[in-house]
Amino acid sequence: MRYKEMTTDELISELNELRRQNAELRRAEEQRMLTEEALRTSEERFRSFLDNLGDIAYETDASGNVTYANKISEKITGVPLGDITGKPFLPLFTADSQEIAQEVYRRTLAGESPEFELTFTNGRICHFKNEPLRDGNGKIKGVFGIARDITKRMRTHEAVRQRNRELSLLNRISKAFSSTLALNPFLQTWFQLPPRYYPIVFYPV
Q: From CA 130, how far away is CA 142, in angstroms rounded?
């Protein structure tokens, strides 16, 4: 063996080199373990953050299957979380919204970041923001995004629009009635009479 031919100084030098290499390997292993632990901790914090959001957070694969949805998804959609993940996302929406969802999904897989509104089958309306989900090489492998429940806001806006339509209709009726009254002297005289004379006008004895 070559070690038998080494001098004491050479053996010490060889041992020191082996010790140095072992120390580097240990440091590398420790660093790897620390990196993996840091990654796990970071992922846990990330998931915890998403699970405590008041908005829906979601991920899908390139085939349109939901690979992740946070806890609030269950409350907003009315669908158990176990029936959301691992399943296609389209059945979660109304027929009209499914057409929109398919289109924006294709656009996201093509690299776009669209914003849009969809209605779930339970009637809840959400504003969505999609982003391409990429792998470590930058290739698009799916979609991730956030959806905010805007049902209350949309219903309030619709109630205001309905009220404005009613007021507009009443205004047109009032103008039409005023025009009719201006052209009819009999009606002008009738409206000038006290209410006690109305039966006399319409039901003369």
A: 10
